[in-house]
Request: fold
Amino acid sequence: MALQLYIGNKNYSSWSMRAWVLLTQADIAFEEIMVRFDSFEPDSTFKRRLRGITPVGKVPVLVDDGFAVWDTLAMAEYLAERFPEKALWPADRRARARARSVCAEMHSGFGSLRKHCPMNIEARLPEVGRLIWRDQAGVRADMARLCGLWGELLAAQPAQMPDGSGPLLFGGFSIADAYFAPVCMRIKTYSLPLPADLAAYVDRVISLPGAQAWIQGALAEHDFLDFEEPYRLGR
Reply:
């Protein structure tokens, strides 16, 4: 039986994007099951559809022959063990530990960036981004940390990969890049400032076939959800 991945709306669901991009970019076959956001109340259609699938009632959920994994870090580890030939983590032990560390930091941190810059792929909100940058010290602090983290990792990679492309965080594609893909989308939506070398990294992530497939799916949804839109009343 193929893997199943339960996801939310591609335009808004940053957590779903991580797992979906990882599977797609690594060419791991899976069945996508989209559970549309309507609300997150206990009696919502969204919550009802997930009953019996996951005890936490959230997406994404990875299901392998009836066995559910409902945390993105756990999914990453599960997939790395299930498909060792895909080399989803770096081969070097220290690089692997560092990749796990930065994924865990993304998993639990960057709260201001998440709060004030929710993922909204089809929107372009540079004016909002300028106001956020001016008014939200927490966002500026999160972006400073992100720049330090990415800058250190990219500086340790060759300037160019064997295929002529620029490096990702650990050279070739890894779980870490899938983990930061939603952040790259936030940076684009709100036009948050970045040094040129890090902006180039963002462009490389967004250009990955797995990320492009997700983006095209998000743009095709045409599903405006008021409760996911703190900055737009309509479109």
Observations:
- The chain has two domains: 3-86, 93-218.
